[in-house]
Amino acid sequence: MIARLAMLVPAVVLTLASGCGGSNPQVWLQIEEDGSLPCLGASHMRVELHAPNNDSADFTFDEFGLFFDTDNFNCVIRGGFSFPDLPLGSDFSLEMSLSDSTTEDKGILSRGTSVSFNVSSGSPTQEVTIGLYRTPGVQQGTLVVYKPDDWNNVSGIQILQFRITKDGETTPARAYYLTFDPVSYPDPFPLVISNLPTPIDMEMYNFTLEGLDGQQNVLRAWRSMVGLQTGHLSFLSHLSG
Known about the structure:
This protein has two domains: about 5-130; about 140-235, Immunoglobulin-like (Sandwich). The chain is built from no helices and 16 strands. The chain is about 0% helix and about 45% strand. It is mainly β.
């Protein structure tokens, strides 16, 4: 069953051709999601505009936030996003991908592409629909990690990495780097890690978040126990050393 959400990203604005008057045509992106919870765990939304006949008209936009409802896990685009000053043209398509806060392919939760469309000077506003489906094999277990109380007291962090391991075991369920840049993206919280196990009965896992300098030296490590279970969204708000 497809749930058509009244959730637009207003607006992808395509600029009028040079020298023309009138208003800028708009393309509104609307999401359809199925029952696979394609946005659960999403904190990184990438929207790509493709123009197969004009490579210079390809654009990529990256936005960060929580793109799911923490109660019912459905997709939520709060406030909408506007991408202005795009070119006119034909055979455009829009691609959307949603990822968690990690930087590996295991964190790509869903991806969808629209049908092709044309935008010319004076075109009316168009709605373009993208169907989102959770990537096959990507588990629904999700952990939301809030900023540690002493985060601002630790200087020199250049890299963030994590690992989450079932209690009593040594092989992590997941372990990798997290999206973070001390200059362009200095506050990555809340971090969201998805594609985690979803046992029927709650099981406990050891979570570790590490801040490293540019030479991979660990400057600070935060640790906590967390429970994972089917249908349960896990939160960590008080990480300790």
